[in-house]
């Protein structure tokens, strides 16, 4: 059951939607005074000079001086219009409404209270939405800013206290108080550092500073909070949220009911752990220490984690077993997903081996000098690699991702927030504990934080001032969702791999067969697998063509024909729906092109700039293709499956990026680094270098120590 | 005057707002049938089993079978509710409404037409919004999908044709037809390549394919377009837009009236030039050729442009004079902005010198080999630099930005869309012509496009599939606006420079004075100027402190005291409002810190990670500071003003970035480049490298040719 205090234009459709879903809703409304004031003003102006208003310019009404109106009269005049509005709106959704006007006294008289209570229950039982308002016409309007008297007594002074009173009286589960600000801030909104409080616990009340003047009307935010606390004590949870933001108005109530992070939630129960904001801050602080450790110390942490993976094998596998059992009994995971969720002794061993390799790479990541310049005498500039800051890695069911990604973050000196799948909760918890144990050997335990499974990805993406880079590890759908949700935070990932193999008229038949087979069949679900095979038109009706088709048939690859290819065929495989399809399975599209140039154009039009291959014996054609194709990876006579950090020899692999800035293609540790410029002088000023100054720019390159690629 | 066809939940507040701004509005509404169907259904169900519905579960209503209802009865039943809704809503905005029901016949009878016309005019004159609907209760509902008979005759078969008829009849300027799709697409929405048409010209009608079934109701999109064309022929412009999207509903009508790009605009007048989408496509195509030119050829283009700047000096200065005169006569530009707008012979000369330097840098940009790896025998990998793709550079009044940015784009092989300020339109036009003239010498004229001044920045930021990087050049406000508007397109720029100078207890007094003076006073408006001076507490009440304050006083720097500094003072300069202020003028904040560590914490809390300076003679303290401060530039005993691409010796300067990925701090040509991976094999497959395979990864680094930093 919900009671709701409505401010101005509240989102009525949500209420009707929820009502039709079987939720019981009551609305506590304001607006009668404002509504009536408009109406009375209009009436007075019309009666003052009806002829003038009708027969002269259109803006006449505004220019006339407006009378001061009495609030009670306004309330009376507005009430009928307000109810007509509610009635008309809810009728659109086949929802009936009822009008209830109450005064303070109705709650003091026991008989009246019982009557009100039973009337409301009866209306709700009949699926009718009660619209409740104070009877402002007979009761004086409340005195602004007068205190509520303690939390055990509450007077009906405004809609917030009325709503709180009614919510408790009716034993409502949730009271949503719509305001014209986002919620409760820890300092007056607009001041330095003012932050929206997501969840407010009664014990925290001391930490709030209220502004001297609030925009939220009678009683201000302080009175709203008191009402909320009163309702909370009476057993009703409360959310204070913005009901006026046009961007979210349509959704605010349904979002709150669905448990999304909107506004400020008042709760009795303080969760044990820190909030995600506190976790991020802890991670950043500890990450600064991590970044300043000696590379060997970072390597030691990673090796310690590798040791722990084998030392604590039993505990890890038993946690993993609990996850697998839960997944099996819920029956929600498919067989491939269960396989990804499952850990084994050998998986942990190879994980540990991988981690030790990352430990080696880590020696050449942070603090590398990329460039040195003598700007002038005794003025030397260095560009050095530094960590990016706080990374957020979101990964799906595979729990082995956790130690891998943690090792990469440690190696690059970054802080890390990890958000894993619910289905791997137990495994992730133990793996994270071990990671923190390893971090502890150099006092940076907090640099890697596991975010609670309750946190929504969308809420994490909101932390744009706190998170520097998001790395989604999982399906291309996950990557796309996160790219959409990440407002202002860069995302490193590839969303699609529509890779092409072009077989030139001068291709060697064996190489063509081998490369097509490897590119499509080695691991069809990989993003670097071939999706479209482009054949030079000269190959049609040649033995090579027949051999290619035979091989694909033997390998059970389902063929979809591109429009041109279909027009050449007498038999007809299914025609493609789109030339931009990522099959991710033993399926591919075949299309015919006139020439290498035509293949390049096709790839530019339908490709995803991931990896594209030419098979030809003609070097000039190959070089032309590789120069022209604008993809992260372009290969000549090699399988598309080589597009991979390990195969490229990058050491630790962070992922594959189809973005065009920062990192592109397979990404090693470098993708987790940025640079900073360090300048050492002796009191140099730019004025010294002006025309009349004493100094000259030299800009000499100073050799940098040889850098082993990480 | 506006006529509007409304679908479902149209945004009435907009109408009221516009009406109150003195616009004349009519609403052609639908919804009566749907409204009435809801109501009748409800009545029938209630009368069928009123007791059952009242006394059992809440979802009873849904589970009962619903009767089939006759449309005319629904219309009659819905009409009153619909009008009540309009009335109630408009009353909120003090706006009166009137109900008009019309039939086809009303337009055939001359007398009725005249009556209708004069009634509508009279209502509009009285500031009353006519709500117009077909009289569905007496006229049969229209037959779906029957064609309108030619464009010269139009029947009132649906709300679109009714609205078109009325708009022409009333000589409306604009008809807004709200639909449930974004507008008109060139192919059925959802198919490959379906693109929203921004502006539709009658001559283009052949290029549209309509879907067999449209979601837009009676008549479908084809009928909507026919109505729109009919209205257009009658002299009324038309916009078809989405009126149901909750994200934009609140704004759609006002946005359209303000001329923003929403939905599809039907216009008689086809503009001379290509659309911005066509320009982007042209730029990308020509850019691919540009990227594949020899570096010397790109250098030649830039040198040719440098020559043209001096050869065509007269024409450039005369165009600039026209802009200056227009700006002066409008009186809208301040003196500093006029100075920025103004070109001179000497400015053009130094511009040409700068361009020739970029031409030299350009030799070492595209196609540099950054890394070579022997992956296996005869399998060699190269990472080479390539252009990013299509850049959008948005710059404010300074027209000298245009050739500079163009030269940088040419040097890095990128395509470029230029969007300059309106006030420099004439100067930008001639400079762009000269740029294209220079590009023509190697046949890539279209690689750089000047976007018409009519285009809104927001609309350009919508082209996320076409533009790879946005570079705003101008005020930090411009950068922030664009970062907000750029959905999914990366933005390279710095939004704020809150630079700190920390004077350590072991600072040398002369260096401190020189560096503070240079950092603050050399060019106070620059982003690398000092905003906050942090003083070690040991310096208070020392001669150094007095000298610093005296110097600032002599230089007329206004001092704002941080909270701690204020507490030490007997005299009191104004206390800062926020420690995060970028003054950009001869003003700064002074704050006291306990130690170097305290200074680092202050910088992390209040800084913008741009440039921060320590002044000390203690090398260990300096190195600690430079290691810990997490900013793009950290300097020891040097002015913050050195944070600049030219002073760093980067050659051509793209800008300064405070982003943490891709490029950070002063950015040279490298910031406009990305990389691609080129792999050359002999038919290699990853299967060859499996445990049972014949090959082994070597991953040997092959030396790369020495690269001169660009």
TrEMBL record, chains A, B:
Instruction: Name one process (GO BP) from the record.
Output: L-proline biosynthetic process
Q: Which HAMAP family match?
A: ProA
Keywords for this entry? Amino-acid biosynthesis, ATP-binding, Kinase, Mitochondrion, Multifunctional enzyme, NADP, Nucleotide-binding, Oxidoreductase, Proline biosynthesis, Transferase
Its Enzyme Commission number(s) read 2.7.2.11, 1.2.1.41
Q: What protein is this chain from?
A: Delta-1-pyrroline-5-carboxylate synthase
- Aldehyde dehydrogenase domain span: 275-539
Q: Which Pfam families match?
A: AA_kinase, Aldedh
Give the organism's phylogenetic lineage: Eukaryota, Metazoa, Chordata, Craniata, Vertebrata
Task: Give a yes or no for keyword Signal in this entry.
Answer: no
* The keyword Amino-acid biosynthesis belongs to this UniProt entry's keyword annotation: yes
Query: Where in the cell is the protein located?
Result: Mitochondrion matrix
- Assembly notes: Can form homodimers/multimers.
Question: What family does the entry list?
Answer: In the C-terminal section; belongs to the gamma-glutamyl phosphate reductase family.
Recall the GO molecular function terms of this protein's record. ATP binding; glutamate 5-kinase activity; glutamate-5-semialdehyde dehydrogenase activity
Reaction catalysed by this enzyme: L-glutamate 5-semialdehyde + phosphate + NADP(+) = L-glutamyl 5-phosphate + NADPH + H(+); L-glutamate + ATP = L-glutamyl 5-phosphate + ADP
Protein purpose: Bifunctional enzyme that converts glutamate to glutamate 5-semialdehyde, an intermediate in the biosynthesis of proline, ornithine and arginine.
Q: In which pathway does it act?
A: Amino-acid biosynthesis; L-proline biosynthesis; L-glutamate 5-semialdehyde from L-glutamate: step 1/2; Amino-acid biosynthesis; L-proline biosynthesis; L-glutamate 5-semialdehyde from L-glutamate: step 2/2
Q: In this protein, which residues make up the domain named Aspartate/glutamate/uridylate kinase?
A: 15-242
Question: Can you quote a single GO CC term?
Answer: mitochondrial matrix
């Amino acid at each position: 059951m919900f009671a709701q205090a409505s401010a101005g234009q509240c989102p009525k459709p949500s209420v009707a939607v929820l009502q039709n879903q079987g939720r019981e809703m009551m609305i506590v409304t304001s607006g009668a005074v404002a509504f009536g004031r408009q109406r009375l003003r209009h009436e007075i102006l019309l009666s003052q000079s009806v002829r003038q208003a009708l027969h002269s310019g259109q803006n006449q009404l505004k220019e006339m001086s407006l009378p001061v109106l009495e609030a009670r009269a306004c309330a009376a005049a507005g009430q009928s219009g307000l109810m007509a509005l509610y009635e008309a709106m809810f009728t659109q959704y086949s929802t009936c409404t009822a009008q209830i006007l109450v005064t303070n006294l109705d709650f003091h008289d026991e008989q009246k209270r019982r009557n009100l209570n039973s009337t409301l229950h009866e209306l709700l039982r009949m699926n009718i939405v009660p619209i409740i308002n104070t009877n402002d016409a007979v009761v004086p309007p409340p005195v602004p800013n007068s205190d509520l008297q303690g939390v055990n007594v509450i007077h009906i002074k405004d809609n917030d206290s009325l709503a709180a009173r009614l919510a408790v009286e009716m034993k409502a589960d949730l009271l949503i108080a719509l305001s014209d600000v986002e919620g409760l801030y820890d300092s007056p909104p607009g001041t330095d550092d003012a932050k929206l409080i997501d969840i407010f616990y009664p014990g925290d009340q001391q930490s709030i500073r209220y502004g001297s003047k609030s925009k939220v009307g009678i009683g201000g935010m302080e009175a709203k909070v008191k009402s909320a606390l009163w309702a909370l004590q009476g057993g009703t949870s409360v959310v204070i949220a913005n009901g006026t933001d046009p961007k979210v108005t349509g959704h605010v109530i349904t979002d709150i009911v669905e448990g999304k992070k909107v506004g400020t939630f008042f709760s009795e129960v303080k969760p044990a752990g820190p909030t995600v904001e506190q976790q991020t801050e802890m991670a950043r602080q500890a990450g600064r220490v991590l970044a300043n450790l000696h590379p060997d110390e970072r390597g030691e942490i990673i090796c310690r984690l590798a040791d722990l993976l084998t030392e604590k094998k039993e505990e890890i596998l038993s946690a993993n077993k609990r996850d697998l059992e839960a997944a099996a009994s819920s029956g929600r995971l498919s067989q491939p997903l269960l396989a990804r969720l499952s850990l084994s002794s050998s998986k942990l061993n190879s994980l540990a081996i991988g981690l030790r390799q990352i430990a080696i790479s880590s020696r050449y990541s942070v603090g590398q000098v990329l460039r040195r310049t003598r700007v002038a005498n005794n003025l030397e500039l260095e560009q050095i690699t530094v960590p990016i800051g706080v990374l957020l890695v979101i990964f799906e069911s595979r729990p082995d991702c956790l130690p891998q990604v943690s090792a990469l973050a440690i190696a690059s000196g970054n802080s890390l927030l990890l958000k894993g799948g619910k289905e791997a909760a137990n495994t992730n918890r133990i793996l994270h504990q071990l990671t923190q144990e390893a971090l502890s050997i150099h006092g940076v335990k907090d640099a890697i934080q596991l975010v609670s499974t309750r946190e929504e990805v969308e809420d994490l993406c909101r932390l744009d001032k706190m998170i520097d880079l998001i790395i989604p590890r999982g399906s291309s759908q996950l990557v796309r969702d996160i790219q959409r949700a990440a407002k202002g935070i860069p995302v490193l990932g590839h969303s699609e791999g529509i890779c092409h193999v072009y077989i030139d008229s001068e291709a060697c038949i064996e190489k063509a067969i081998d490369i097509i087979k490897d590119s499509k069949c080695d691991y069809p679900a990989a993003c670097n697998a071939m999706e479209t095979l482009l054949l030079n038109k000269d190959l049609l009706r040649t033995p090579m063509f027949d051999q290619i088709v035979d091989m694909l048939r033997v390998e059970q690859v389902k063929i979809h024909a591109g429009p041109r290819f279909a027009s050449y065929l007498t038999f007809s495989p299914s025609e493609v729906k789109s030339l931009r399809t990522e099959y991710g399975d033993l399926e591919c599209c075949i299309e015919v092109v006139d020439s290498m140039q035509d293949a390049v154009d096709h790839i530019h039009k339908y490709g995803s700039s991931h990896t594209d291959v030419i098979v030809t014996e003609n070097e000039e054609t190959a070089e032309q293709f590789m120069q022209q194709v604008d993809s992260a990876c372009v290969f000549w006579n090699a399988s598309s499956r080589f597009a991979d950090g390990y195969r490229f020899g990058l050491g630790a692999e962070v992922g594959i990026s189809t973005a065009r800035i920062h990192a592109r293609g397979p990404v090693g540790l470098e993708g987790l680094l940025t640079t900073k410029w360090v300048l050492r002088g002796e009191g140099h000023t730019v004025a010294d270098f002006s025309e009349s100054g004493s100094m000259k720019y030299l800009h000499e390159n100073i050799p940098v120590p040889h850098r082993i690629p990480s």
